[in-house]
Design brief:
Elements lengths: L2 H5 L1 E2 L3 H6 L3 E5 L2 E6 L3 H10 L2 E4 L4 E6 L3 H8 L12 E7 L5 E9 L4 E5 L4 H9 L7 E4 L5 E6 L3 H6 L14 E6 L2 E6 L8 E6 L4 H12 L5 E3 L1 H10 L33 H10 L3 E8 L10 E4 L2 E12 L4 E9 L8 E6 L2 E8 L11
Parallel strand pairs: 1-3, 4-14
Antiparallel strand pairs: 2-3, 4-10, 5-8, 5-9, 6-7, 7-8, 10-13, 11-12, 12-13, 15-18, 15-20, 16-17, 16-19, 17-18, 19-20
Helix pairs in contact: 3-8
Length: 368
């Protein structure tokens, strides 16, 4: 391993990844599995059956205090006040100029709020949130005290139901609960980044081994597969789920990124006026889904062309294992953003025809 890799954080499940033959890489300061048996096989296992992801690199912040709600209303774009205990919302944080600081999940729990942020942004996000603290608010970084496993796929509920007496059948999408799983009390939720049904388990370190062993043992009856970062990326891309650093960043506005549905302009969040103006005037560019023809592999940074002239760039791209065709996301001027618009992708001095399609690319996911 390189010096950077030896300094990277190993999750509580590192030894299990190595034992399973995973190809480990440094990602956002963590040693993470990029693949086990292969990205395509792992991708299809989640689409057709069930897979297990180690997401312990994600960040978790707790917010408490009498002014906690007002604080979150100011630093996130969605309406946190609309959440009931146990509900979760997808949201983002924006700078004063409307650029996206990060996208995140906001959990409303009985005695606190939980923010789940991207691994690469943990330190920066925490500092940004700290800079906006006001009143009776306590912000605590719990990232190093939480292991996170995700069970995703059409058979996720069947598998997890063998490990808990909690009524999973009645658990709505984007909600959380605290219950015993394999004899360990944990916070868990029903969300996901794949388009499939699934659950996320926020695990105290002392229970990490117990839960890994319990899930993988029961998983043998369901042909549970271990899933790396590679398949996680292709699964989310098929659903047009934005990846921070590729599809969204501080230079992008949530409206142009197609995230207007997580923006509540009735709240006074940082950057609200700029975002409102962008919505009113309509953005000059939009993030679109592109299906590409031919034996192409579109990648981040490749040019998007109209009549031979560059009009934008690919932000994410791959060969879709589910659809068996190349797909990509990219920003293009608004006049080219309608479904059916014809463009080209420049790949290694060749041009491949592409056309805009309505999101998501994959429309048969099992999430509800």
């Amino acid at each position: 391993m390189t010096e950077t890799e030896t300094q990277a954080v190993k999750t509580a499940f590192f030894k299990y990844h190595v034992e399973a033959g995973a190809r480990m890489v440094e990602f956002a300061g963590f040693m993470m599995p990029v693949q086990y048996q292969g990205i395509i096989a792992e991708h299809l296992a989640v689409r057709e059956n069930v897979g297990l992801f180690d997401l312990s690199h994600m960040g978790e912040f707790e917010v408490t205090g009498g002014d906690g709600l007002a604080f979150l209303q100011h630093v996130t774009t969605n309406n946190v006040a609309a959440l009931k205990v146990g509900q979760i919302q997808y949201s983002c944080m924006t700078k004063a100029d409307g650029g996206i600081v990060d996208d995140l999940l906001v959990y409303r729990l009985a005695d606190r709020y939980l923010l789940v942020v991207n691994a690469a942004n943990i330190t920066r996000d925490f500092a940004w949130l700290e800079s906006h603290l006001d009143g009776d608010v306590k912000l605590v970084d719990r990232s190093g005290q939480v292991s996170l496993l995700a069970i995703q796929g059409p058979n996720a509920e069947k598998l997890l139901s063998e490990l808990t007496t909690y009524n999973l059948a009645d658990m709505a999408f984007y909600t959380s609960a605290i219950a015993e799983i394999a004899g360990c009390e944990v916070l868990f939720s029903r969300t996901g980044y794949t388009g499939e049904d699934g659950f996320e388990l926020y695990i105290p370190p002392q229970h990490s081994d117990t839960l890994w062993k319990a899930i993988t043992e029961v998983g043998k009856r369901y042909d549970l597969q271990l899933i790396g970062l590679g398949a996680r990326d292709s699964l989310r891309l098929e659903m047009k789920m934005a990846l921070y650093g590729n599809d969204i960043d501080e230079s992008t506005n949530p409206i142009e990124a197609g995230l207007g549905w997580i923006v509540d302009l009735d709240t006074d969040f940082v950057g609200r006026d700029v975002v409102a103006q962008t919505k009113a005037e309509k953005p000059k560019r939009r993030l679109v889904c592109l299906e590409v023809q031919g034996r192409a592999f579109p990648r981040h940074g490749y040019d998007l062309l109209v009549d031979g002239q560059p009009v934008g760039k690919v932000t994410s791209g791959t060969f879709s294992p589910s659809l068996q065709k190349p797909i990509a996301l990219g920003y293009v001027p608004r006049r080219y953003a309608k479904a059916g618009s014809e463009l080209e992708v420049a790949i290694r001095n060749k041009r491949f025809a592409a056309h805009v399609v309505k999101p998501p690319f994959y429309k048969d996911g099992s999430h509800r």
